[in-house]
Amino acid sequence: MPSSQAAASKGLVAGISSFIDGQDSIGSTSSLEAGGSLPTDQYLYSVDRFDMSRIRWILVIEKEATFQTLARTGFHRTSKAGEGIIITGKGYPDLATRVLLYRLSKAHVAGSPAPPILGLVDFDPDGVGILANYKYGSVKLAHENGHTNVSPLTWLGPRSADLPSPKVGGEDPIGLLRLTARDRKKALKILEGERCAENGPEQDWRRELQVMLMLNTKAEIQLLSTSLGQLEVWLETKLRDAIESTRRDEEDSLPDSLEGPNA
Predict the structure, then answer these.
(1) From its phi and psi, is residue 133 left (phi > 0), alpha (psi between -120 and 50) or beta?
(2) Residue 11 parent element (H or E)
(3) For a 10 Å CB count at each end of the chain, is N or C smaller?
(4) pTM of the prediction?
(5) Which residues lie closer than 8 Å to 127 by C-beta, 6 or more apart?
């Protein structure tokens, strides 16, 4: 059962235009559209449904600064990939942020493709840890995990394929860093866990962690702006690819249509 103790949230969201709460009243707040703080987890549990009619994607962002940059430019409204929702838990998420993402993951319009839910996190062990927190929950709040885990979440980037080639004899690009002893310890701990084990469900995460350790390299989201051009351009390409991939997967999962009688 959800917790009976309301908790204020540190999370932020932009792109939610309206919702219907437990009293059947329509809520519409400019703060949740433009980039405001979340309500309590208790209130989010009480929301009956969100307006997802125009939402094509949901982006979970590790860092508040990146969230604020995208919210300020209205990326969630003007993206060439279509309208979306952006969310940040400012690092590891609190309960209300996880509740919101879970509710949104269940709220897509029936008969239409579910919007992909994508994580924009640093290419480092903590980035993987944050993804795992949203997707699988936390040990501390294990009693809440059934109401908060977001299994469709996938890692958008940055990933190893997005890394620029290191400069020989020069400084690394801004945002490209060396792993610390703590980073290596955390990466090894994640690899020892069941989700990233050799036969675990997160083989993509496993490969990325192995690349981190092999190259002794991590990368911040900032790298996407400094080394790969504008963050928005990179995001639009990745979002459109994710939407198309989701559409194909849903089409492949449909049963074959019944064929009519031969003429």
Answers:
(1) alpha
(2) none
(3) C
(4) 0.86
(5) 62, 119, 121
